[in-house]
Amino acid sequence: MSKRERKKEIPAFCIEFGKHLRALRVENDLSIEEIAFKAGIDAQNLRKYELGKQEMKISMLKRIADAFGITTSELLSFDD
User: Fold this and answer.
1) How far is CA 30 from the centre of its chain?
2) For the stretch 14-28, what's the b/e string if a residue is b when 16 or more beta carbons lie within 10 angstroms of its beta carbon?
3) Where does 1-80 have alpha helices with state H?
4) Contact indicator for 15, 9 with CB cutoff of 8 Å
5) What is the pLDDT of residues 15-50, one digit of tens each?
6) Mean pLDDT of the chain
7) CA angle 45-74-15, nearest 5°?
């Protein structure tokens, strides 16, 4: 498998986490732009995370958790 092919493979966890992230955002009645602004990230990247199309670095996870006002443990607490 080439490096390019491996890069396209996104783990199932990322897809499930993205669904959780979107549900959390909707539950809090926030737009992608609002959370992205609070987290200091690009809204397009946040959209990719929600769609499970991009893996997230731990530092980004912390920024998103902070934007929601929760801990990273709380952000990662979901059934996949």
Assistant:
1) 14
2) beebbebbbebbeee
3) 3-8, 12-27, 32-39, 43-50, 58-68, 72-75
4) no
5) 999 999 999 999 999 999 999 999 999 999 999 999
6) 90
7) 40
